[in-house]
Specification:
Elements lengths: L64 E4 L5 E4 L5 E3 L2 H12 L22 E2 L2 E2 L1 H6 L4 E5 L5 H9 L4 E4 L8 H11 L3 H20 L9 E8 L4 E5 L6 H6 L3 E2 H4 L6 E3 L2 H7 L3 E5 H6 L2 H5 L9 H4 L3 E4 L11 H13 L5
Parallel strand pairs: 3-6, 6-7, 8-10, 8-12, 12-13
Antiparallel strand pairs: 1-2, 4-5, 8-9, 9-11
C-alpha cells in the first residue's frame, strides 16, 4: 500500500479519504458504455464550494463522558474546548456538528475552507506529537491508521484523551462515525440529528438516479504521477459502496481483483473493461489530465479510455463517507449520467 508524500491519502483503503485542494472537474456523459455524443465529449460538473454545512444550532457539550475507543480503550473526556482532529474526515464531522470553533489544529487532509487557516500538526502525513502537544488540546480524535505510533504514544503519555474512530469503508459507516465523534464530544443529540440529515440527503440522491438499461462499469484508479504510482482499486478500495449506490459496477472488484489496490497493467485494465474511470482530481492533475491518463499503458484500449470518459472528484471528500457524502454521490451520478436517462 503506497505511503504518500503529498498528504493526499492517509489511508488507501485504509482508507482513502485524501486531501489537497484541486478544482479540476472532468466529467462523463452518457452511461453503460454507449456513446451519447461525439467520442471524447465531456461535460463539466458544477462542484459545490469546498465548505461544510454546520447544523443550524450549535450544541452545548455535556461533559464529562466516558466512551469506548475503536482501539478497545475507554476514554474519558472532561472538556472539549480545544479539539485536534487528525484526519480531514474527523475534522469535517466536528465542524458540521457545529463545534468548529473549538478546533485548534488540522492535519493536511482537512482541506475545506473553514479549516484552512488552522495550524498544521502533520508533516506530510505523519503526526507531529510536539505540534499537537504545544496546542494543549483537551481531546485528540484519530483514525485507526493515524500515526506514527510513537507520536500517538507521546500524546497519550502526556495525559491527553485520544479517541480512535473506526475507518470509513462505505456508506453504512457515515452514521456510526458521526455518532462516535458526537458521543465523545458530549453532544449525542446533535450526532443523531446530523446522522439523520446526512442519511436523508444520501437517500434523496439515490432516489433521483436516472433509470438506465445497463449498469456502467467504473474503475477507480489511484494516480500519483510524481511518484509513478498507478493503481486500480479492487475489493476493499473504499469505492465499491459509492459506485454501487450510484447504480454502477465497481469494475476492478467485479473483475476479480482481490487486493485493495493493484498496480495497473494492460491485462488488469482489459479484464476490468471499464466504461468510465473514477479518479481523484489531484491524481488526474498529477498525470497531466485526461491527455496524460490515456497514455498510461492499457487505459486507451478500454471503453473509458477510447471515449475519454473520466469522473473526477475532489481528493478531500471522495471517500470520506461523512456529512458531505451526498454531494460526492450527486457529483458522481451527475457525471455518470449527465442528468439524463436511457
Amino acid at each position: 500500500m503506497p505511503r504518500e508524500t503529498d498528504g493526499t491519502v492517509p489511508r488507501l483503503r485504509t482508507r482513502l479519504a485524501g486531501a489537497l485542494l484541486s478544482v479540476l472537474a472532468l466529467t462523463l456523459t452518457g452511461c453503460g458504455g454507449a456513446a451519447t455524443s461525439a467520442a471524447g465529449a465531456s461535460a463539466k460538473a458544477s462542484a459545490p464550494a469546498n465548505r461544510v454545512e454546520p447544523l443550524t444550532d450549535a450544541p452545548n457539550p455535556q461533559l464529562p463522558v466516558t466512551v469506548r475507543s475503536a482501539d478497545g480503550k475507554k476514554v474519558t473526556v472532561q472538556n472539549a474546548r480545544r479539539i485536534v482532529p487528525l484526519s480531514g474526515s474527523l475534522s469535517e464531522i466536528v465542524f458540521t456538528l457545529g463545534l468548529g470553533g473549538r478546533v485548534v489544529a488540522r492535519d493536511i487532509t482537512a482541506t475545506f475552507q473553514q479549516a484552512a487557516k488552522l495550524p498544521l500538526v502533520t508533516r506530510n502525513h505523519d503526526v507531529s506529537a510536539e505540534s499537537v502537544l504545544s496546542l494543549k488540546p483537551d481531546l485528540v480524535l484519530a483514525e485507526t491508521t493515524t500515526g506514527p505510533s510513537e507520536a500517538m504514544g507521546q500524546i497519550r503519555a502526556a495525559g491527553i484523551p485520544v479517541l480512535v474512530v473506526d475507518p470509513a469503508k462505505g456508506l453504512a459507516d457515515v452514521g456510526p462515525r458521526i455518532q462516535a465523534v458526537a458521543d465523545a464530544l458530549g453532544v449525542p443529540a446533535a450526532g443523531k440529528e446530523l446522522t439523520k440529515r446526512s442519511e436523508d440527503r444520501i437517500a434523496a440522491v439515490r432516489t433521483a438516479i436516472p433509470r438506465h438499461k445497463e449498469k456502467p462499469r467504473v474503475a477507480f484508479l489511484y494516480l500519483r504521477g510524481s511518484a509513478s504510482v498507478y493503481l486500480i482499486g479492487g475489493k476493499g478500495s473504499g469505492a465499491t459502496s459509492l459506485l454501487e449506490a450510484a447504480g454502477a459496477v465497481d469494475a476492478g472488484a467485479e473483475s476479480g481483483l482481490e487486493k485493495d489496490f493493484t498496480a495497473i497493467t494492460t491485462e488488469a485494465l482489459a479484464q476490468a473493461a471499464p466504461d468510465a474511470i473514477l479518479v481523484m482530481t489531484k491524481g488526474l492533475e498529477s498525470v497531466g489530465g485526461v491527455d496524460g491518463l490515456v497514455k498510461i499503458p492499457g487505459v486507451a484500449q478500454t471503453p473509458a479510455g477510447m471515449n475519454r470518459r473520466v469522473v473526477s472528484i475532489e481528493d478531500g471528500v471522495l471517500l470520506n463517507y461523512g456529512p458531505r457524502t451526498d454531494q460526492v454521490l450527486k457529483s458522481l451520478v451527475d457525471q455518470l449520467y449527465g442528468g439524463g436517462s436511457e
